[in-house]
Design goal:
The complex is a heterotrimer of chains A (about 250), B (about 190) and C (about 375). Chain A contains 10 helices and 9 strands. By secondary structure, chain A is of the alpha/beta class. In chain A, helix 4 packs across helix 5 (about 100-110). The chains are: A alpha/beta (about 250), B alpha/beta (about 190), C alpha/beta (about 375). The complex binds thiamine diphosphate and iron/sulfur cluster.
């Protein structure tokens, strides 16, 4: 059996700064592993978003560019249009992609940009200290929804994967989780598939990964893992939502 | 500063999670109740969690200019990195209060300041409240410096602690008293 | 009366002295000024403001929206203020950059509202340490077009409260956006605060507000003027307003100016640090004073000019590499030496370090 947790070559060998039990580290490994698998380290350009994953440039042994909060997908589109022979991906939190960057996200997908977005959905603003996110579940208490998220004033949690799958421009859309070995294996396959789509020039690929943020959920790592299973997955169902077999122009 | 004027400043420093901010808040609130001017300035380490934390408290009988202090009258340090950072800054004949549960007193080098060691974690553990080492430190520090009345600290607990923790006020008071008693019992 | 229509200040509770954080003082002042509408997007180091208001506004019947971005926040604010309601947003530097288009539209459409910038260090993502690097952005318009914002720079927790109340009043008086410009030092610091009632101001009736054209001609709020001469007339009208502000609204604090040979000029957090430096300098027998602009627009040009008749040495102290110093230079007599001591973001200068600079130039 293949080891999932061998340190991928394109991850720099330093410890992550993430809190104990945070899933960002696992998601980073999945991306790194896919880059290693396709041996594209030297032709990959990453775009970091603003959130707890902003320090991506410290971990990935590839070229990395920092984008203003929310604009990673537009920045990545710019990179790709200038260098179509490179593999370009963004790694964005839910605040970054589903709130401030939702317009860029939708239009990047709609243009069918041949890039990959890794969407790290932990249902909260991690870096700024636990405010409500567009993906915060109904009733969930955060520092700016002290009485629990209420749809009458805060709206409903947004299902990004479903939304982007409706767009003609998107080629591959999946939602995965990393809370247990079975889900992790599926996540690994999905991330790999997303990069494969880009390599084969099939168009826009998108993988939403459900992540735990034990710190801002006010939970232990184990409790947070359980919450992914019991509360997040029922609202954000896992699976491949869209997989185009042929590129648009064929 | 003018001699008829009361002016004192303290830096409280330690690991995030050691409760140094609560110490600073309580001192500031207590001094405010006693009619003093106060400023409380927190500084968090760059690391989001588990980094170092420190705060500066200024207490004065007159309006306070800078809440930032370059050379404090006293430093209350709860861990070694804080000792290394703040010992050199203390004003001559100032006070260095160290948590000798986590810092060897021999790590200090200044001869021109008073060095006062209290093993606050041990005392807290011995009294069955390991989580209240910060309150032991506060009680001991205040007994040593007599900056504010003990009672003002007790009254301040209600204002400073989040309502969720109000049921813990009696145990906090006890820990402050234990810290103070430890200092009283010193020769 | 519609609940959000602006009006008199809510009667304060028992004005007890409390130990409060600067950011929270702003939130309290907003509520006490009957601003019950808040729109914002999280960003450090000002999150205490939305967190406080998300907790307390519902009980007052107010509205709290965490918008999807600062672009949305400023436009929610534009809409709310067009109804004549008091409303506010708060953010920090990168977020304020995103708001510039909306602020320009608000200035053009003459809409009053409060915008709080608890600034951080830039450029770009920069860092969260205190900085005064947004002075130019705040006082020079920031957005496009020939407009000005009222800019108030508190330097204590009590002033965070008092100037927030004042900012709402000035915004209403002039039909113009007003900004509170602070930084992490003033925002995160705690000091005693008394929620005392803000001085009453005679404010014009908001007959321009969009409330539905019932029994009156429809109101229009806009910034587009295409008819011949219309736009220049509009710009002159705005200019008149800014001139009136310069005449009536300048506020500053002066400290030990009477016999000063050297004047320190500093605002906000750096004025606090400099004040102690001035005291230390006085103890050493140096005749040093401090001028602290409270309004950054309108700027205390005249106060500086008058002082410069007598004082020929100025030292501007800022938490940046030199912004307000330009306004000091523009204000004083030609024969005055204006020195500058600044710090890029990172560590805060201590009073002793500023004193060192004073000694250097005092001669
Ligand atoms: C224009 C702008 N607004 C706000 C911020 C503050 N900010 C930094 S990260 C962040 C959101 C973090 O949440 P998310 O994207 O979900 O990532 P996470 O930290 O949870 O991984 C925000 C609002 C900013 N940097 N720039
Ligand atoms: S705050 Fe949450 S998302 Fe950020 S590193 Fe910690 S656990 Fe991870």
């Amino acid at each position: 059996m293949e080891l999932v947790f061998k340190r991928p070559e394109c991850l720099i060998d330093i410890p992550f700064h993430f809190c104990p039990g945070c899933h960002h580290g696992i998601a980073h490994r999945l991306v790194a592993e896919a880059i290693d698998y396709f041996k594209i380290r030297e032709k990959t350009i990453g775009v970091a978003s603003v959130g707890c994953s902003v320090f991506m440039y410290d971990y990935f042994n590839v070229d990395v560019l920092e984008a203003p909060h929310g604009r990673a997908s537009a920045v990545a589109s710019g990179v790709k249009r200038a260098r179509k022979d490179r593999i370009v991906f963004t790694y964005q939190g839910d605040g970054d992609l589903a709130a401030i960057g939702i317009a860029e996200g939708i239009h990047t997908a709609n243009r069918g940009e041949n890039i990959t977005i890794i969407f790290a959905n932990n249902g909260i603003y991690g870096m700024t200290g636990g405010q409500m996110a567009p993906t915060t579940l109904l009733g969930q208490k955060t520092s700016t929804s002290p009485y629990g998220r209420d749809f009458t004033s805060d709206g409903y949690p947004i299902r990004m994967a479903e939304m982007l799958a409706t767009l003609e421009g998107s080629a591959f859309v999946a939602r995965v989780a990393v809370n247990n070995p079975a889900n992790l294996m599926k996540a690994k396959r999905a991330v790999r598939k997303a990069f494969q789509m880009q390599i084969e020039e099939m168009g826009f690929s998108f993988v939403e990964i459900l992540l735990a943020c034990p710190t801002n959920w006010g939970m232990t790592a184990l409790e947070a893992n359980r919450r992914v299973e019991e509360e997040m997955i029922p609202y954000f169902p896992l699976g491949i939502l869209k997989e185009r077999k042929m590129a648009d122009y064929l | 500063m003018n001699s008829d004027r009361f002016y004192y400043n303290i830096i409280v420093a330690g690991f995030g999670g050691q409760g140094v901010m609560v110490i600073g808040n309580l001192l500031a609130n207590a001094a405010m109740i006693e009619g003093k001017y106060v400023t409380y300035l927190p500084v968090y380490g760059v690391e989001m969690r588990g980094g170092t934390a420190n705060c500066t408290v200024v207490i004065s009988s007159q309006q306070i200019g800078s809440p930032v202090v370059g050379k404090p009258h006293a430093a209350l340090v709860m861990n070694l990195p804080s000792l290394i950072k703040y010992e050199p800054l203390i004003l001559p004949s100032g006070l260095l209060f160290i948590n000798s549960s986590l810092i060897e007193p021999k790590e200090t080098y200044r001869k021109d300041i008073e060095i006062f060691s209290v093993p606050v974690n041990e005392i807290a553990i011995d009294n069955g409240s390991p989580k209240l080492a910060n309150m032991v430190a506060l009680g001991a520090f205040n007994q040593k410096t007599k900056l504010v009345q003990m009672n003002s600290l007790f009254v301040s607990l209600e204002k400073v602690l989040d309502e969720r923790y109000h049921h813990l006020i009696p145990s906090n008071i006890k820990a402050i008293e234990i810290g103070a008693k430890f200092v009283q019992s010193l020769p | 009366m519609w609940p959000f229509e602006c009006g008199e200040i809510v009667e304060n509770q028992e004005p007890e002295k409390i130990l409060a954080k600067g950011n929270e003082a702003i939130a309290m002042a907003a509520m006490d000024s009957r601003c019950l509408l808040y729109f914002g997007y999280p960003i450090t180091p000002q999150n205490d403001i939305p967190e406080y208001l998300s907790k307390h506004l519902p009980a007052l019947g107010g509205e709290f929206i965490q918008a999807e971005s600062e672009i949305a926040s400023i436009n929610l604010l534009l809409g709310a203020s067009a109804t004549g309601a008091r409303a506010m947003t708060s953010s920090s530097s990168p977020g304020i950059s995103l708001m510039q288009e909306g602020i320009s539209y608000m200035a053009g459409s003459e809409l009053p509202a409060l915008i709080v910038n608890i600034s951080r260090s830039g450029p770009g993502l920069g860092g969260i340490s205190p900085s005064q690097g947004d002075y130019f952005q705040a006082t020079r318009g920031g957005g496009h077009g020939d407009y000005r914002m009222i800019v108030l720079a508190p330097s204590s927790v009590q002033e965070m409260y008092d100037l927030t109340c004042l900012a709402f009043n000035l915004a209403d008086k002039y039909r113009n956006p007003a900004m509170i410009l602070g930084d992490a030092l003033i925002g995160q610091m705690k000091e005693p605060l008394i929620r005392r009632k803000c001085a009453k101001m005679d404010l014009p009736v908001k007959d321009w507000a969009l409330t539905g054209a019932q029994g009156r001609k429809p109101n229009r709020l806009k910034s587009l003027y295409l008819q011949d001469g219309e736009l220049s007339e509009h710009n002159w009208k705005l200019h008149q307003k800014y001139e009136q502000m310069k005449k009536e609204e300048v506020r500053f604090e002066s400290f030990f100016t009477e016999d000063a040979k050297l004047m320190v000029a500093a605002f906000g957090s750096m004025a606090r640090v400099s004040k102690t430096s001035v005291e230390l300098a006085r103890e050493e027998g140096m005749k040093v004073g401090l001028l602290r602009p409270i309004t950054l627009f309108p700027y205390p040009e005249k106060a500086l000019y008058d002082l410069s008749q007598r004082v020929k040495l100025f030292l501007t102290v800022e938490l940046n590499t030199g912004q307000m110093v330009e306004d000091v230079k523009l204000s004083v007599e030609r024969d005055v030496q204006v020195y500058f001591y600044g710090r890029p973001p990172g560590s805060l200068p201590s009073p002793e370090e500023v004193l060192e600079e004073i000694r250097k130039y005092y001669g």
